[in-house]
Amino acid sequence: MIVDMVKKEKLFASQGGPIILAQIENEYGNVIGSYGEAGKAYIQWCANMAQSLDVGVPWIMCQQDDAPQPMLNTCNGFYCDNFVPNNPNTPKMWTENWTGWYKNWGGKNPYRTAEDVAFAVARFFQRGGTFQNYYMYHGGTNFDRTSGGPYITTSYDYDAPLDEFGNLNQPKYGHLKQLHDVLHSMEKTLTHGNISTIDFGNLATATVYKTEEGSSCFFGNVNETSDAIISFQGSSYVVPPWSVSILPDCKTETYNTAKVTTQTSVMVKKPNEAEDEPTTLKWSWRPENMDSFLLKGKGESTMRQLFDQKVVSNDQSDYLWYMTTVDLKEKDPVWGKNMSLRINSTAHVLHAFVNGQHIGNYRAENGKFHYVFEQDAKFNVGANVISLLSITVGLPNYGAFFENVPAGITGPVFIIGRNGDETITKDLSGHKWSYKTGLNGFENQLFSAQSPSTWSGESVPFNRTMTWYKTTFKAPLGNEPVAVDLLGLGKGTAWINGNNIGRYWPAFLSSEDGCAAECNYRGTYYAEKCQTNCGEPTQRWYHVPRSFLNSDGDNTLVLFEEIGGNPSFVNFQTVRVGSVCANVDEKNVLELSCNGKPISAIKFASFGNPGGKCGSFEKGTCEASKDAADILTDECVGKEKCSIDVSEDKFGAPECGGATRRLAVEAIC
């Protein structure tokens, strides 16, 4: 169907359109072993089916080492320089270069350095690569219920070159742009040249691409600790550890992956200036109506069995009620003074009620979704209504047999009675269970601006479970991206003018350990390397697209709070560049940009051997004769961007004992 739609619009390159490749399946090779011979037969079927569609462009299969001809197998990962296609006539293609990693609720912020991404790209092209594609190049947002997982956050920023809000993630964006400018300048040589490689030992190599018109060179050093000194055609070159130098003419180094000359942008949040008191929004509230579930146990369907949540709800909601009524007599063996409810569960979050009373809730840690929840409960002689609310937070969408991963109250469920040393269990799993998908507030669209429901502005309760909150606010001035700070809330869902901006869960903090003040880009990257944000909410800020907002008049924010939180801290802010830094070696060009805003001041500048890092630069032991701050103030302040040659002609000649001289600068936007 999709191919027919694309053909109808004449979008394939064979029809004169822009689509040059088509893909069938995605990373099936990572799971094919779990399916045995059926998996192999399926991949053959995919190849035959795709080929029969006659799209006129090549078909690719990612991570499929046994891709049938004429499918092209390609590589996904942090590094693909070692990848070899299964057909010697297939180009070496890298379809997903992971620029970072995604966040999980309860997890930390992944961070992959610009140096390492650039190293991976340059190393790939050094070793015969022909095509590479970033995943993600533009980070994004999982609005509504689109985040999978389980436990993938609403933010899908991914530490990508363009961030979730559309801002340049500097220096990653600029460092990669410079790399591709250099690679494009060598395109003819790289695509037509004969390749030869020289091994210098200690993980250092030179690769030469040669045509009749000229040569281009890569010098690679995969050693993680020591420089490589490469002697080539009468000249000597120093290649830092874990880096690649590129010489388009095999004489002059124009780029090294470890030498970042692009600015670092420090992003800041700015209060909503459209509001007189942006931090004190006026709230109204109403409870989620659960009486029919808690007191009557009435649902939409009834079965004498506990079913997986996916089976009952068909993924139409995060919420599913499991309800049953139990008649107890004083003669019942389980009856006693000390009674509890024990639930074997795979719900991501569980709320348990007995006779309308909330006896407790449970939050699963990521990856630990099989647990036993037990809580003391007060039962009555006669009828007792047990109501269990199972909540999912994104369903699995990857791996073998992911559709079979259980979710919900999979049971068994017991009433536990204790009389002295004796423990009696009453299994409720085969009782008549009533099911109800979703919550009344969602069905009645309390989040809609057209909702006729009544809200109370009196005695707004905080830290109350299963509660709806509503407020109005003015859209922040200007056109900068908007974020809402939901710190202080627990877990739930947020809507702006009826648009679902996603699940929120600021109450879920990451662990205190696993973060380091410094990140060493040298050495193989993995998702847990260089993490930040230890001990903080996994996600505090939530993206509000300007297209969701009314620039004139009021906007409505509605929150559904599941576990209890304080909305009085909620406020809207804009995201912008606060300051920019650069640390550029001599004989390079310094470029500063405030992303459309004027540079307002030079906070620090020094040409010589300055130390420190962005935000805490300090002068070194050698300093140029001219005042670098004065020069940069004249050249840059008041402009949106400026460009300066870093040279002793410009800044004077510091005596640094032969060491490389550089310019460090921090500018305020």
UniProtKB/TrEMBL annotation:
Domain of life the protein comes from: Eukaryota
E.C. number(s) listed in UniProt: 3.2.1.23
Domain named SUEL-type lectin: residues: 584-669
InterPro entries the record matches: BetaGal_gal-bd (IPR048913), Galactose-bd-like_sf (IPR008979), GH (IPR017853), GHD (IPR041392), Gly_Hdrlase_35_cat (IPR031330), Glyco_hydro_35_CS (IPR019801), Glycoside_Hdrlase_35 (IPR001944), Lectin_gal-bd_dom (IPR000922)
Reaction equations catalysed: Hydrolysis of terminal non-reducing beta-D-galactose residues in beta-D-galactosides
Subcellular location(s) per record: Secreted, Extracellular space, Apoplast
Keywords: Apoplast, Glycosidase, Hydrolase, Secreted, Signal
GO process terms (BP): carbohydrate metabolic process
Molecular functions (GO terms): beta-galactosidase activity; carbohydrate binding
A single Gene Ontology CC term: apoplast
SUPFAM superfamilies attached to this UniProt entry: (Trans)glycosidases, Galactose-binding domain-like
Entry similarity comment: Belongs to the glycosyl hydrolase 35 family.
Full protein name: Beta-galactosidase
Taxonomy of the source species: Eukaryota, Viridiplantae, Streptophyta, Embryophyta, Tracheophyta
